[in-house]
Amino acid sequence: MGTRYRTNLSEEPLRFVTTTFNRWLPLLKDESYFSIIANSLNFVSSKYNTDILAYVIMPNHLHLILFFSDAVKLSDYMRDFKKYTSGELRRKLIIEKQTEVLQKLEFPVGSNHYKIWMVRFDDFAIKNAETFHVKMNYIHQNPVRRNLSSTASEYFYSSAGFYEMEKDGLVKVTYYLDAIGWANHYTYGRI
Q: Looking at the whole model, is its pTM more than 0.85?
């Protein structure tokens, strides 16, 4: 994976991550597409003992705040997530005969004929409460800024509803203080 703005060498367990579909294409058209992303996030989070503290799944990219309870294996997490979702989204686009979209995703190198995700993903370590809140607010306001909803909590593919109305979405979210624990609460400051 690419290393632009990457802090993957850091052992900081609290991370803000962004990844984008190839060419910024809006591949997620309906709930069945969003469900592929959500199901994979739930699976890899369980596999790597990682809590999702905040997220938004946009039609052409996604943002996450992750907390790694064990070793920080962000590259493995993202590799597994992208590998599975690439295959599932590619199959769905082929079955639905999304020829125009597939042509934009054509990638002649190797056996994979379509490139779903950009190679890289961006991340950085969150080291204090102020940064955490800035990033969580940014994530939750993303659909409002893109005119996908009038309020953050009404956008179903986000953790905003979880925090504002205790409403579960497609992705399992862990309340941030439950994830970092009271011992770490003072490491990050008052979150």
A: yes
